[in-house]
Amino acid sequence: MKNPDNKTIAITFDDGYKDVYEFAFPVLSQYNISATVFIITDYIGKRNDWDANLGWIHYEHLNEDEIRFLQKAGWEIGSHSVSHKSIHGMTENEIIYQLTCSKEILEDKFAQRIDFFAPPFGSISNRIRTLTLRSGYKGVCGFYSFKYYKNQLLPGIIPRLAVYRTDTIESVRRKLLRDSNLFKEVLKQNIINFCSNATIIVNTLR
Ligand SMILES: [Zn+2]
Q1: What is the Rg, in whole angstroms, of the alpha carbon atoms belonging to the chain?
Q2: Domain 12-205 has CATH 3.90.1150.10
Q3: Ligand 1 centre from 7 Cα, in Å?
Q4: How far is the CA of 118 from the centre of ligand 1 (A)?
């Protein structure tokens, strides 16, 4: 997809919720746009028990048939780990398990090479980048931190700008155009991401 500056952008969805199939797919199809969906392999066709933030509110994840439907429509499938646990506190072996096991399951189920990994809770580090590339992926997609804002990008890292329900058409436009207001959007995203860490804390205490 091209933006007004003639730059290519990619639309991605983490977690693989059913609403991607029900709402995002029909809208994007109207504009002939395909996207990437990052799947949590333990939760294919199940509800989101991993998300402590949402309390009693449960959402369904895409099932295999719905993922295949998107795939046939030209969408790309990526990995969002096996279990959606934060990988920052994990040992190297645990991270490699999350990377390789989810890749194998997705490649087996959907007969497609899985090239990209999006870590749960979004933030990336050089350690995660190295392990992702070593596990056979082409790249890791994470949050657009201040480091990337300053263009200090390492190969294999694909920074993303999140779109939240609090966003407006104007704020999405600022993100797409990467204009002088981008700093404000990156700051907002970092604050929202910091708050989402409550899920990691609650899950640790469980
Ligand atoms: Zn997620």
Answers
A1: 17
A2: no
A3: 27
A4: 8
- Rounded CA-CA distance 176/197 in Å is 26
Contact 192, 164 (CB under 8 A): yes
CA distances from 31 to 24, 35, 142, 151 (A): 11, 12, 26, 31
- Where along the chain do its domains lie? 12-205
Residue among 165, 150, 163, 95 at smallest CA distance from 124: 95
Do the Cβ atoms of 25 and 73 come closer than 8 Å?
yes
pLDDT 10s digits, 70-107: 999 999 999 999 999 988 889 999 999 999 999 999 99
CA of 54 to the centre of ligand 1 (A): 13
- For the stretch 32-54, pLDDT in tens is 999 999 999 999 999 887 775 55
Q: Tell me the backbone φ, ψ of residue 145, rounded to 5 degrees.
A: -90, 175
User: What is the distance between the terminal CA atoms of the chain, rounded to a whole angstrom?
Assistant: 42
DSSP 171: H
In the chain, which residues have pLDDT < 50? none
Asked if 14 and 40 touch (Cβ cutoff 8 Å), the reply is no
**Tokens (6 digits) for 39:** 């799947």
**pTM score, whole prediction:** 0.84
